[in-house]
Amino acid sequence: MAGIALLLLSSCQLGKQPIDLKIIPFPALPHWTGQHYQHALDAFLQSCSKPIKTGVLHPNVDLDGYAYACKKARSVPKQAYAARRFFEQYFTPYRASHPEAKGFVTGYYEPVLQGSLTPDEQYKWPLYAPPKGTMPSREAIQNGALDGKGLEIVWLNDPVMRFFLHVQGSGKVQLKDGSMRSVRYAAKNGLPYHSIGKELLKRGELKKGNVSLQTLRDWLYKHPEQRDALFATNPSYVFFSLTDDASPPIGAQGVPLTPEHSLAIDPAYLPYGLPVYVHTSLNKPDTRSQALARLLVTQDTGSAIRGPLRADIFFGRGKSAEQRAGYLQSQALFFILLPNPPAEDA
Length: 346
Description:
The chain is of the alpha+beta class and 346 residues long. 25% of the residues lie in helices and 26% in strands. It contains ten helices and 15 strands. The radius of gyration is 21 Å and the shape is globular. 39% of the residues are buried.
């Protein structure tokens, strides 16, 4: 479901060469002290409900200690020191590098939109359930290809935020009575994704280095007459389901995502469920960049998250999460925590 990167970047395919790993000690991790270790442990425990896929990361990497680490994680006291001690005792960090790629990280979040179960003059932009048979393009849907088929599940009051919801892949909709519903990814039409951020850069409407969720949204609100035509340059389209469940979003691993501790990765290079320490910077306009270091767990993926050192941090729900996710587009250092071999008493 990872998403903002889709607005900004196009994916690239690299040769399937494994990630290079170099062991380093925990004290050498930048800003390792002061982490929210307990939140990271909670995220790791979510992943322990699923088996880890071996053989993805590197042919010489042994993940036999993963199940043992999960077993030990379940008995760790709810204390920050205990959580930190757990990671330092049952894992070893490795600096990740790759001859064909540099580390790069973006952010994504769960948007909250305003909606209605019936259309009116304010709520007139529908989300659709998947159609049967042929999947039309975005332009065809904008021109009425799904009209009259009864596929509408909810109507929104903002076409721009509807587009961003498509990019994120899931979100929450607050109805007129104040109740909250979840909209979950159900299917895509299978057509290629074209970044509207890249399109605006090509047209000279935005400048390189100034493309973020915020600048894209501002441009769309200022140019409503060009909005639908710009959307139509991206033929890919997402379909949704609507539920009463207001719980956290579910990542591609099939577990709930933890704000600032869940990471979307390319599962061709990294398995789901591994702790990964990411050191990067948050860059806001007209301010100094802020160092950002997080212990996360690989639990999700996204259409633009392709390559060995490409990742997307989940920031949670709402405006604050949107702000942080929208400004994260930075090179990053990745440190993969591999489980130590199980003890003899395992």
